[in-house]
């Protein structure tokens, strides 16, 4: 839930564990169930509590539920989330000058432009979702993990082929990486 002070003329919303909320009496506050609703009514996220880490704590139950469903591994480091889907890597990070979040994606093959991205090796996916859990749904749509593919179908066979090719590419690039490292350590 997202809270706002009913006595304040400033339209600011907070997460439930913001110290602004915990230091006051609950009576002063109204709430929204969804972030979308609050933002559409012109509320702005609080600068103190709306961090990726804070929002993750707030939505953790829902996020964990869907990561489990899609078989994603999620981990939190500082103020960002990393999601491994088996098809790629994703990061949800705080935008540089606002309380917004950004989604970054890493393909199995790195494009040249990804090397000088804000997050090296990743490209900005340029989607903005309201809640963090919505990014999990976005990723699932992107990866096709939300669709059940039944065995024996043409699509299943294609997917198996694709996954095998992906695994092969990955192992080749792992070997190349190791050779690189070896040469580097010899050069020192
Ligand atoms: Zn707050």
Describe this structure in words.
- With 188 residues, this protein is α+β, with helices and mostly antiparallel strands.
- It has three domains: 2-45, no CATH class; 52-143; 150-188.
- The protein contains five helices and nine strands.
- A five-stranded antiparallel sheet has the order 5-6-7-8-9, covered by helices on one side. A four-stranded mixed sheet has the order 3-1-2-4.
- Helix 3 runs parallel beside helix 4.
- It starts with a strand and ends with a helix.
- The structure holds zinc ion (ZN).
- Zinc ion (ZN) binds at residues 14, 18, 20, 46, 48-49.
Structural class: alpha+beta
Numbering strands along the chain, what is their spatial order in the largest sheet? 5-6-7-8-9
Strand content: 15-25%
**N- and C-termini, Cα separation:** 55 Å
Bound molecules: zinc ion
Strand and helix order = EEHEHEHEEEEEHH
Overall pLDDT: 87
Compute the number of helices: 5
Low-confidence runs of at least 5 consecutive residues: none
Please report the total strand number as a whole number. Answer: 9
Anisotropy-based shape: elongated
What kind of sheet is the major sheet?
5 strands, antiparallel
From the alpha carbons, calculate the radius of gyration and give it in angstroms. Answer: 21 Å
Helix content: 25-40%
Total domain count: 3
């Amino acid at each position: 839930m997202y809270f706002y002070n009913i006595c304040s003329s400033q339209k600011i919303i907070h997460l439930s564990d913001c110290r602004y909320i915990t230091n006051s009496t609950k009576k002063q506050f109204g709430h929204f169930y969804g972030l979308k609703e609050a933002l559409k009514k012109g509320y702005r996220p609080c600068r103190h509590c709306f961090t990726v880490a804070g929002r993750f704590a707030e939505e953790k139950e829902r996020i964990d539920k869907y990561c489990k469903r899609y078989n994603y591994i999620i981990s939190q480091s500082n103020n960002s989330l990393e999601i491994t889907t088996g098809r790629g890597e994703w990061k949800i990070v705080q935008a540089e000058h606002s309380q917004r979040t950004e989604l970054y994606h890493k393909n199995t093959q790195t494009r040249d432009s990804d090397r000088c991205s804000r997050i090296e090796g990743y490209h900005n996916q340029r989607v903005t979702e309201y809640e963090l859990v919505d990014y999990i749904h976005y990723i699932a749509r992107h990866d096709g993990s939300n669709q059940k593919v039944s065995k024996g179908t043409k699509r299943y066979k294609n997917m198996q082929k694709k996954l095998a090719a992906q695994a092969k590419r990955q192992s080749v690039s792992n070997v190349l990486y190791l050779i690189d490292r070896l040469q580097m350590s010899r050069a020192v």
